[in-house]
Amino acid sequence: MKETVIKTDKLTKRFGDFVATNEISLEVYKGEIFGFLGANGAGKTTAMRMLCGLSIPSSGQATIAGFDVYKQTEHIKKHIGYMSQKFSLYEDLTVLENIRFFGGIYGLSNADIKTKSEALLNELGLQDEAKTLVGSLPLGWKQKLSFSVAILHDPKIVFLDEPTGGVDPVTRRQFWDLIYNAADRGITIFVTTHYMDEAEYCNRISIMVDGRIQALDSPANLKKQFNASSMDEVFFELARGAKRGE
After folding, report:
1. So where are the chain's domains?
2. pTM across the whole model
3. 4, 80, 179, 221: most buried by Cβ count inside 10 Å?
């Protein structure tokens, strides 16, 4: 039996008369790499903020790691990690200072912080950069470090908002190796991206158009459904269909 760690039922967010996310229903499973795709303005960020417990829905239901998005937002925040494209570490602190700081924020003991810091530095090959200011690291290293810190406390789910924006293709591939390793440990990956080739790396993806989920399946099944050779073609067909009102 698959363990459901994210479940939404007609989750909706309105801002006045504007409906940003419209009746989103989905289930995401433990250890799954779930892609959340859509053009800018499709409602991805609004949906992610609700799932992270940062924004209360207007209607609908959702549980994240077993906790209700209306009543248990503080519990949700303790069981998730989050990383954004804008980079979430402190650039005026060293690599090790950042790891220790966020370890404390996540409530880890001093002993756990010490052990996990050493393991993280070894995994990323940053032993010699432990006392280097994060601001002086190349962007790719910053992003890999930021992801590793986001899962330092072994959350059930990590939310990644456009995590590979602006990095080169080789570094993107290395970043996805870290994602695979985390998923193998049972951490669920919920990732937004505008790189359609990255959608191929996900177990399943949903595609949002104008606030609604218009498709949800594995990349292989979606390409078969739309008789497409790439996810770019699938996305194009969905967008074109939405314009025609299909």
Report:
1. 4-243
2. 0.91
3. 80
